[in-house]
Specification:
The chain has 301 residues and is of the alpha+beta class. The chain is built from 8 helices and 12 strands.
Length: 301
């Protein structure tokens, strides 16, 4: 399970639960499929899928969890057609016009009728708790999805105090400086960034496949634009797009890391998952502190 999009949070209290204790606590909120009039359901499922039974997978002190969400698929067009059919039937049978309030009531009846028979779709979202470094790393493209997982953790534990990772310097200012001048020795700025005007509703320029040292890009910076996203590589071990809110997009572990993963003897799916998780969490435990230092250090205020 290689994470692709990171939302990073800091634990504000010491986390002491073991994998076994966390599993037992999560049992009450284990995933159950939609029933009756449920529009969606969320709950914990095993990170190992069909290859495991535990709701928490532990490697090197890090605790991997997996939230499953199931949603009913009830297209608006299907609901609309069913409403129109009922309205037409009433108007033809009773020779009268169906009013707005009655249509609203019909809509509720239609949904109640269709929802239990609707198809469902589900997805899984992964995260891990790193008690040693006081982090929660979530494999989510948005903070809203991350908050959904964190809320489920809070509901399961009763309390789970975290805050988004914060640094002392503005990431946009540091990224802009890396494009203008020079990035740290172990960071390579690649060929992609997003520049914006530092005002509300200011213009945004997305640049890809262009040398960021070119006159064209530098002119945008001279005109006052700042970097809100920047593609980088770190120590030839991983690449990503760093975002000004400290989320990380399109994380990819490079050949050096994947070769190490390939060299690990893993005879089955469980061993492979465990080895990949160990290697990924180790790489991130090296990268994130370095990144924070380049951005002025973690802001604990």
């Amino acid at each position: 399970m290689w994470f692709r999009n990171l939302q990073i949070y800091q634990l504000t209290d010491t986390f002491t639960l073991s994998a076994e204790e966390l599993h037992e606590t999560f049992q009450e909120n284990a995933f159950k499929p939609c029933q009756g009039l449920d529009k969606h359901r969320i709950g914990w499922t095993t990170p190992l899928g069909k290859h495991g039974e535990q709701l928490v997978h532990s490697t090197n002190g890090c605790l991997m969890v997996c939230m499953r969400r199931e949603d009913r698929i009830l297209p608006a067009s299907v609901v609309r057609d069913a409403i129109e059919e009922k309205v037409d039937e009433i108007e033809a049978k009773e020779s009268r016009t169906v009013g707005r309030k009655e249509k609203s009531d019909i809509k509720e009846e239609v949904i109640v009728d269709l929802l239990p028979r609707a198809f469902t779709k589900s997805n899984r979202s992964y995260a891990y708790i790193d008690p040693k470094n006081n982090w929660v790393i979530l494999n989510c493209p948005t903070s809203n999805k991350a908050e959904e997982i964190l809320t489920l953790i809070r509901d399961s534990l009763g309390s789970f105090k975290v805050r988004p990772l914060a640094v002392k310097n503005a990431p946009s200012a540091i990224m802009t400086d890396w494009i203008k001048n020079k990035a740290p020795a172990d960071v390579e700025v690649t060929d992609e960034c997003e520049l914006k005007e530092p005002v509300e509703n200011g213009g945004v320029i997305r640049i890809r496949g262009v040398d960021l040292g070119s006159d064209e890009v530098q002119q945008h910076l001279k005109s006052g634009k700042i970097a809100s996203k920047l593609a980088i590589e770190w120590q030839q071990r991983l690449s990503c797009v760093l975002v000004e809110d400290l989320s990380i997009k399109r994380l990819k572990f490079m050949d050096l890391v994947m070769e190490e993963a390939g060299d690990t003897a893993a005879d089955d799916e469980v061993m492979r998952f465990d080895a990949d998780f160990a290697l990924m969490s180790l790489e991130l435990s090296r990268f994130i502190p370095v990144l924070c230092e380049y951005l002025g250090g973690v802001d604990n205020s």
